[in-house]
Amino acid sequence: MDHLQQQTPYQLLGGEAVLRRLVDRFYDIMATDARAAGIHAMHGPDTTSIRQRFFEFLSGWLGGPQLFIEKYGHPRLRARHMSFAIGEAERDQWLLCMFQAMAEIPMEAALREHLEEAFTRTADFMRNT
C-alpha cells in the first residue's frame, strides 16, 4: 500500500470515468437488488441528481477534485442524512450495494481493502437510530 501514499485513491481507482461507473453501478444495484429495498425506498424515483451529488462528493472524498465542496460547501454528512432513519440494516444495505459495485471495478487489492474500510467507517458513522 506504499503507492497509496504517492497517489490518491481517486487516481488509483482510475479518475473521473471509473468513479462515475462506480456511482452508477451503486445506484443501479440499489434499484434492482431486493436486499437493498429499504435504502432504495429512501430515494426518489429519479436518481439523476443524487447520482451527480454522490459522484461529486466521492471525487473529493477520494482525493480528486473537490466538486461537492465547490458547489455546496462542507459535506456535513450526518446533518444531510439526519432526516432519514439509518440503522444497522440501512448501513448494511448501503455497504452491500457499494461493495458489489466495487467488485465490478478492477482495482488493486490494497486499494479495495482501503476503500472497504473507509466506506465501512463512514457508513457506520451515518447511523442515527
Automatic annotation (TrEMBL):
Keyword Coiled coil: no
Listed SUPFAM superfamilies: Globin-like
InterPro entries: GlbO/GLB3-like, Globin-like_sf, Globin/Proto, Hemoglobin_trunc
Pfam families: Bac_globin (PF01152)
CDD domains listed in its UniProt record: TrHb2_PhHbO-like_O
Annotated keywords: Heme, Iron, Metal-binding, Transport
Annotated family: Belongs to the truncated hemoglobin family. Group II subfamily.
Name of the protein described by the UniProt record: Globin
Source organism (scientific name): Chitiniphilus shinanonensis
Lineage, highest ranks first: Bacteria, Pseudomonadati, Pseudomonadota, Betaproteobacteria, Neisseriales
